[in-house]
Amino acid sequence: MKKILEAPYLDNNFDIDLSATIISEIIDNLVKLPKLEEKINEPLDFTKKIKFNNLDFNKTAYLNIAYLSLTKLENIMRDLDQFSTEEIGKKIITLYKESQKKFEDSNDQFEYIFQKFYICKNNWNNLKLKQVEDAKWVIMAKYFENCSILKSR
After folding, report:
1. Cβ(39)–Cβ(146) below 8 Å
2. pLDDT tens string 42-74
3. Are 116 and 60 in contact (CB under 8 A)?
4. Which of 12, 86, 122, 132 has its CA 20 to 30 A from that of 39?
């Protein structure tokens, strides 16, 4: 499996660039996925959940940085008004359940979910690639905390 952190446009670049167009494309992609009837849990402590899942240093750092952009993401999602955040959360839980069948390690499960969000095209320029990756990180941060994405307690 290709590791998500090998992308050159992510290395040492922590400036999150959220695009409403990219967020809309990712949400459209997520909504097309099958869903389970799953309850969205109350948010757990973000830091504790990261530690509990034993995520590696890079994923932890990127999630923490992406977490700082949640307000901007929520504003974009409210403006888009396409689908409920709960519906999107259920789609992501479906990806998590798929990842559990394929991998035991939380880091591998995280990689699987991240890659399935939205597939980047080879002919995109670095700016679009960065916007997609940034959007995926911020969406992961949003749903990591309050969905059954990876282990909790």
Report:
1. no
2. 555 677 777 777 888 898 888 888 888 888 888
3. no
4. 132
* Look-up of token digits 């999150």: 16
Instruction: Tokens 């396409």: give the residue.
Output: 82
**Length of the chain counted residue by residue:** 153
DSSP 43: P
Q: Which tokens is 123 given?
A: 């002919």
Spatial contact of 129 and 22, defined as CB atoms under 8 Å apart: no
Beta-carbon count within 10 A of 39 CB: 11
pLDDT per position as a tens digit, 67-109: 888 888 888 888 877 667 778 888 888 888 899 899 999 899 9
For residue 72, count other CB atoms closer than 10 A to its CB: 14
Nearest to 62 by CA among 10, 7, 108: 10
Identity at 146, one-letter amino acid code:
N
